[in-house]
Amino acid sequence: MPQFNPTAHPHRRRNPLTGEWVQVSPHRMQRPWQGQVEKTAPDERPAYDPHCYLCPGNERAAGTRNPDYANTFVFTNDFAALLPETAPIDPASELAGGSPLLQAKAVRGTCRVICFSPRHDLTLPQMPLSDIKGVIDVWARQTTELGQTYRWVQVFENKGAMMGSSNPHPHGQIWALDALPNEPFKEDTRQRAYREEFNRLLLVDYAQAELDHQERLVLENEHWLALVPYWAVWPFEILLLPRRHVLRLPDVDDGERQGLARILQRLLTRYDNLFETS
């Protein structure tokens, strides 16, 4: 039998955050590829669009008018996927169908939109570092505020029409709800189990392992590591980790937020250059 080579032989890798296994087939990188390659047309947008419902002073789709904001602007989504008041579901209701295989539970929450800047033409990595830091400060404040009411607060961005973004004005979202979604639930469970077994912190140990190996690091600075996780599923997947143990975003101090702004700008610029599109 030949000696195992992780860069040539198919194998599985375990994701310690979920307990699931990922199939890895590195030898398939040698196969011929004749897929389609398309050049994306340049995305030229004005600094202000009078027809954009996220630009300052404009009317949104539901009729509310935005203020003439000059910095990062947050508002409750006019078409939110979650609502703060939801009627409970009777287990014996028609929705449950009287079967243990048909279960449903009510969920409460809220959804907010974050316009990163008043500029219609600037994506996050194109903004000045001080303005990116301002966005991070807003993420932290929103997490603190919503975390007083809801169990889970998620800050994210769906970027671009291909990913389903409904408006080209650079913006992100915050979803807060009273239950843990599937992936955070699995990751919370696995990290608790790791702490019980080893009396250590899973992600702190993993960050150190990647620093020791120096194989999958993409970017780093004094506060943050951006790396391809050992158990990556996507071809261009990045895991962003703080160098110290931090429980939640509001606990990141001012210097670390500056470092986060720098590494986000560098990382997102690399993504833009890699795919030749925003």
Give a structural overview.
- By secondary structure, the protein is of the alpha+beta class.
- The chain has four helices and nine strands.
- The chain has helices at 129-147, 182-198, 202-213, 254-275; strands at residues 11-14, 21-24, 73-76, 109-115, 152-156, 171-177, 217-220, 224-227, 239-242.
- A four-stranded antiparallel β-sheet has the order 3-4-6-5, with helices on one face. It has a three-stranded antiparallel β-sheet with strand order 7-8-9, sandwiched between helices.
- A hairpin with a 3-residue loop joins strand 7 (217-220) and strand 8.
- The longest helix has 22 residues, at 254-275.
Features:
278 residues, alpha+beta, four-stranded antiparallel β-sheet, three-stranded antiparallel β-sheet, 4 helices, globular
